[in-house]
């Protein structure tokens, strides 16, 4: 009798902790949305809701790649620079014909593969820390962009890319549909393929993965390449939404993508997290920024919000880590 009485509260406590760990962000997203609808009436207008979804899509695409890298115990600071470089490439071809999308996409993806390969090589073969490797690549890309554009990017964004980034079908943003397709692909890869299972194994315990025959370096290398490819696609989507280009398109997305991914439950220690959680994190972050503007706070206040969110994300991560 005493045993049952003593174990029941503990069972309930663990059940509550498990529920919060799995669904806490989803509950917070619902509460945030309801609160915004009540206290910021402009939030619930169809135009604003569509705007939130349209803004969340480019970040969501980048978050997919950042999620893969964080799952293998890294992170990618070069994603924003990859986005800006892809945006510059998008305006470097003849914008009068939609056929220009083919060379734009080809060159952008080639650039992304090269960047991701260099990042992966430095991290896996030269044992450079992900922070230094991707930070160095970010700076290199910035220098190359400024050299190519002579400090001032110019040119028009092709109409097809603008349509991809800013238009909607029956009220659903096209870039959101693209995000959903990419999310399904990445989610299926992680859950249904051998490569996806290896990603979780490498992130969970690289030594153990190596002992069972997993090529840890190859898996990590592949994640950095995929992160750059998704960042390039995110850059094309973003420049299509903005409609113009400069050398700083996507600025801040390196931090935003990491914050959103960690908020979504992807562990900084690797091996834990889902695509769905990371995408909810991206939506929540975009929603928070939208609410601050609707409530009349200055744009600079977003930096304060971002800092607070980082602290909360780290606190939650440490609490979950210690409880495990």
3D architecture notes:
There is one protein chain. With 324 residues, the chain is mainly alpha-helical. Helices cover 76% and strands 1% of the residues. The chain has a single domain, classed as ABC transporter involved in vitamin B12 uptake, BtuC (Orthogonal Bundle). The protein contains 13 helices and two strands, in the order H-H-H-H-H-H-E-E-H-H-H-H-H-H-H. A two-stranded antiparallel sheet has the order 1-2. Helix 3 (79-90) packs antiparallel against helix 4 (101-124). It starts with a helix and ends with a helix. Mean pLDDT is 87; it is low at 1-13.
- Note the quaternary state here: single chain
Give the total of beta strands.
2
> Ranges with pLDDT <50 over ≥5 residues?
1-13
Highest CATH level, the class: Mainly Alpha
Number of helices: 13
Describe the largest sheet. 2 strands, antiparallel
Q: Strand order of the main beta sheet, please?
A: 1-2
Order of helices and strands: HHHHHHEEHHHHHHH
Fold-level CATH name: ABC transporter involved in vitamin B12 uptake, BtuC
Radius of gyration: 21 Å
Structural class: mainly alpha
């Amino acid at each position: 009798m005493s045993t049952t009485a003593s174990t029941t509260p503990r069972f309930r406590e663990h059940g509550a902790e498990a529920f919060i760990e799995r669904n806490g962000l989803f509950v917070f997203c619902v509460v945030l949305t309801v609160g915004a609808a009540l206290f910021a009436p402009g939030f619930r207008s169809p135009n604003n809701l569509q705007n939130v979804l349209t803004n969340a899509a480019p970040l969501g695409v980048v978050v997919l790649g950042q999620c893969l890298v964080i799952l293998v115990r890294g992170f990618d600071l070069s994603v924003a620079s990859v986005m800006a470089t892809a945006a510059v490439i998008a305006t470097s071809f003849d914008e009068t014909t939609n056929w220009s999308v083919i060379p734009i996409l080809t060159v952008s993806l080639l650039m992304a593969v090269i960047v991701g390969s260099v990042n992966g090589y430095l991290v896996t073969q030269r044992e450079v820390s992900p922070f230094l490797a991707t930070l160095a690549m970010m700076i290199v890309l910035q220098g190359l962009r400024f050299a190519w554009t002579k400090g001032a990017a110019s040119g028009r964004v092709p109409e097809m890319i603008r349509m991809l980034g800013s238009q909607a079908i029956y009220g659903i943003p096209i870039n959101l549909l693209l995000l959903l397709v990419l999310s399904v692909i990445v989610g299926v890869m992680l859950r249904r393929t051998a490569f996806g299972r290896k990603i979780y194994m490498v992130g969970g315990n690289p030594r153990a993965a190596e002992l069972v025959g997993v090529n840890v370096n190859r898996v990590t290398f592949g994640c950095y390449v995929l992160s750059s490819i998704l960042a390039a696609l995110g850059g094309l989507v973003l420049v299509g939404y903005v409609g113009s280009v400069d050398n700083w398109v996507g600025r801040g997305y390196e931090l935003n993508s990491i914050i959103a991914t960690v908020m979504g439950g992807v562990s900084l220690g690797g091996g834990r997290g889902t695509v769905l959680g990371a995408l909810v994190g991206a939506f929540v972050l975009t929603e928070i920024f939208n609410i601050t503007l609707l409530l009349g706070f200055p744009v600079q206040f977003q930096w304060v919000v971002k800092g607070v969110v980082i602290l909360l994300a780290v606190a939650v991560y440490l609490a979950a880590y210690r409880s495990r």
